[in-house]
Amino acid sequence: MRYSQMFIPTLKESPADAEVVSHKLMVRAGMIRQLASGIYTILPLGLRVLRKIERIIREEMDGIGGQEVFMPSIQPSELWVESGRWNFYGKELLRIKDRHDREFCYGPTHEEVVTDIVRREVKSYRHLPLTLYQIQTKFRDEVRPRFGIMRGREFMMKDAYSFHADVESARETYGQMAQAYSNIFKRCGLTFVKVQADSGTIGGSFSHEFAVLADSGEDRVGFCDRCDYASNLEMAEARPPEGEDSQPEEALREVATPGKKSVAEVGEFLSQPAARIVKTLLFDTDRGLVAGLVRGDRELNPIKLKNLIGCEWAHPASEADIAKNDCPPVGYVGPVGLNLKVFADHEVMQLKSFVAGANKPDAHFAGVSPGRDFKVEKSGDLRDVRAGDPCPRCAGTYQVRRGIEVGHIFILGTKYSRAMKANYLDPNGSEKPMEMGCYGIGVGRTAAAAIEQNHDEKGIVWPVPIAPFQVAVIPVNYSNEKVREASDALYRALWDAGVEALLDDRSDRLGVKLNDADLLGAPLQIILGPKNLDDGKVEFKVRKTNVSEVQPLAGAAEKVVALLKTL
Ligand code: ATP
Ligand code: MG
Question: Atom 22, ligand 1: which residue's CA is nearest?
Answer without folding.
Answer: 442
